[in-house]
Amino acid sequence: MKDTFFKKLIKFLCLLLLALNVFSAGNESDSLLLETLDDVLIEEYKPCSDESDISSFEVSTISSLMIVSGGSFFTEGEVITSSSGVQAIVESYDVETQKLTFHQDANTGFETFLLNETITGASSGIAIVKEFIIDLTIPCSELIVSIEEEPQQMIFTSKESAEEAKASATSTAAEMMAEIEEELARKAALEAFQKKLAEERADAAASTAAYQSKLTYDAMVEELMEALAIEQEIAAFEAKLAAEMTAAEMMAEIEEELARKAALEAFQKKLAEERADAAASTAAYQSKLTYDAMVEELMEALAIEQEIAAF
Question: What's the pTM?
């Protein structure tokens, strides 16, 4: 699309140069030859030029006008240079209307100024090209146009044909400008679409990055949850194992305590039995002692009775 736009622009500029310029873009010798031919033709048609009040310089030179930004001042004969390297010679400058009239010759070249580019002069400041105005100075009888890159002959065109050529060039220029404006509109629409597409791609990339970040976060959380579940299982198993070990120890202690209790009960039972046996033995001994004491008393009483009976 850019190539098509530039091709149309170049075509438009070439048509303008063919319609407006009387000099060909040849070398210095061809320019000198063309100037000589122009001088001869000017002298030949001088009465017509006088009638139209056109000077020989005006006839042999096609001037161009453009409107520039304010704040600068240009003097006649000053060479101006644009930011793209295009040069021209100042003819006049109207401060109020900001119209700058200029022409180009073999020394300056015949390149074309561009809109919105800056121009500077030797004694002026910086100005910006705002608009171009086509202003042709045509002799009343004929327009001299060179159609060869190295002009050796000139073709004379009548005033009517020149007017028709001017109208045709203007119409063609208008069509080209319409095409250029349409191309610029398409380019602007394409740039807006590309900008919107880039923004949508950036948003999609951001959304994708956010989604990838969420997936990464979810995976990390899932891993942490799995690790936590494993840790909880390990902790539960360790707690269960510790409880079982504690229960085993307690059972061992209980069994030991029960064994001790059983042994104590057996000892206490044996002791009770021994005490009972001892008590039984003691009772028998006490009974014997009582019996012996009673027998002894009976014997003493019997002895006393026998003594009494003997007395």
Answer: 0.29
